[in-house]
Write a structure and sequence with these properties.
Two copies of one chain form a homodimer. The first copy, chain A, has 222 residues and is mainly alpha-helical. The first copy, chain A, is built from ten helices and no strands. Chain A binds a DNA duplex (30 and 30 nucleotides) through helix 1 and helix 3.
Chain lengths: 222, 222
DNA sequence: AAACATCCTGACCACATGGTCAGCTCAGAA
DNA sequence: TTCTGAGCTGACCATGTGGTCAGGATGTTT
């Protein structure tokens, strides 16, 4: 029977059952790699640095991940999966205020919950998105176009100003992403050590207020 | 006297007077380096690649620039100088709409005129701003604080909503920067090859409209 | 022509890179 | 006791890195 040791973190040093070791090490490596890749980009990151960050020998990283490229792609895919996870479908019947605020909130949370992943993504895009072209021109484009259509219908119904929906999506995108990607700048200028939950809540509120008002959406239940 | 040869681009191939050769080569190298650093970050960029991009042997790049680090710092300083060049002082007596629109316009132009520089800056910040800490916590902070004070006075006078001025500055910042830094994403999603002047004008108009309205600023001459 | 400073670069160096691999450890099954 | 297989890793390799340098090319001044 073997009563299946609990695979929790913080238990013994050795001898987990099954592939628990693998699972834990992979998690550790992925986390370390996300940090390093986020900070230095694909080329700038070295397996040595990633291994050091994960507290493992370089060979071990390659043993689990196969190659630098494979590791990087895996991280990107994980980030895209997180992104997809927070996408609920919307319909013309929904309340624009609800939808926009929900969009801002969830995007803000994603950036906050995974700042390294967010920076990793940003670095990839800034570098010309060599690995993500297919994604941008595929899934992501479809997603944006679908939203844009609905926004336009709202405009036609007088529920919001006739603004270009795609630019609106980019506006929300950039504003929310900024606080993760440019954290160093935000902290430096505001002279803080970290952004607290309160700060984030305040920013979210600010963005919601300004953007909703800015495109003429009544602030809840139209 | 020496009638000072015009230092325009496109003149002869050889034998410029004075340090004209030096000037031209340095310009070439800086342009190439900006592109490479922007695409791969500090560590990810190689002198080899920069030299190739500039059409010179690697030794020549080092002959002019001394070191990779020096070259990088010089690029950052050039970008900061460009940034400073477009900063006009403002006063409480100015029209909020004028100031905000001017801010959006000039920031947008900067990003558009120097997209590689903008991306270079972005990559530096994403990586934790190792070279720019002093600048963020110095000049840039002062600049933001000064503006923030004036925005607050405008709010007190009822010329705009009582929004947090620092978040407002970051909002404008991120939105305008986005179209340079995330160009790959914007192009991929909108299925364009480039952003035309018309596109940029439309975006600028959109941002001005939404942001001014969003924080309750009357759209010209309050 | 001789002197001079600037411009230029191939060869080289010590070191870091991504990746391979033979062979180790060690728990559990046969 | 032997075998198996997952986990692991130090040594190694070809290639690329930033940087140095001796020495040549080139043009200007005397």
């Amino acid at each position: 029977m073997t009563p299946r040791k609990t695979p929790f973190a913080g238990d013994g040093e050795k001898s987990e059952a099954n592939g628990a070791i693998r699972e834990r090490n992979e998690r550790e490596i992925l986390a370390a790699a996300e940090r390093i890749f986020a900070g230095h980009g694909y080329r700038g990151a070295s397996l040595q640095a990633i291994a050091h960050e994960a507290g493992l020998p370089k060979s071990n990283v390659l043993y689990y991940m196969g190659s630098k490229r494979g590791l990087y792609v895996r991280l990107l895919e994980r980030m895209m999966a997180r992104w997809n996870a927070l996408l609920d479908d919307i319909s013309v019947e929904d309340d624009p205020a609800d939808v926009l605020e929900g969009f801002i909130r969830s995007k803000m949370q994603l950036s906050r919950r995974h700042p390294e992943g967010s920076r990793l993504f940003a670095a990839e895009i800034i570098g010309g998105a060599p690995f993500l072209q297919y994604y941008l021109r595929g899934e992501m484009r479809d997603w944006v176009q679908a939203r844009a259509l609905i926004f336009e219908q709202w405009s036609a119904r007088g529920l919001m100003d006739p603004v270009d929906p795609v630019w609106l999506i980019f506006l929300i995108w950039s504003a929310t992403q900024h606080y993760a990607d440019f954290e160093a700048q935000v902290l430096g200028i505001t002279d803080k050590d970290t952004l607290t939950d309160n700060d984030v809540e305040a920013i979210t509120g600010f963005l919601t207020q300004v953007i909703l008002k800015g495109c003429g959406v009544a602030p809840r239940q139209a």
